[in-house]
Amino acid sequence: MAKKVFTDYYMADEERLKGYTVANVAFGTNAADSGMLIELEREVDNVVLGIDIFYDPDNEELEEPCQISQEYVKRIYQLPEEPEKKVCQCGNGKCHTECKG
Question: 59 with 65: CB under 8 angstroms?
Fold first, then answer.
């Protein structure tokens, strides 16, 4: 899995977050047990994309207390194979009740 890259939350815009839903919320995610992580995700075809928002009220002086990750791939689902299409055995080209195909 690729490393998550975080930037200051004020750099995020509404368009970037469209289509995402909240998948998980975790509390106590920093050393002082006061941080919060919000995991967002959305599906595109067979891929689940994610964006994480991290809030740390006990941040260091030069950091913003709220950070947002770049979009990343969370999961890829294998698409099911399509069932094999039956071919008419009688040569008619169209399956019908008498055909065993």
Answer: yes
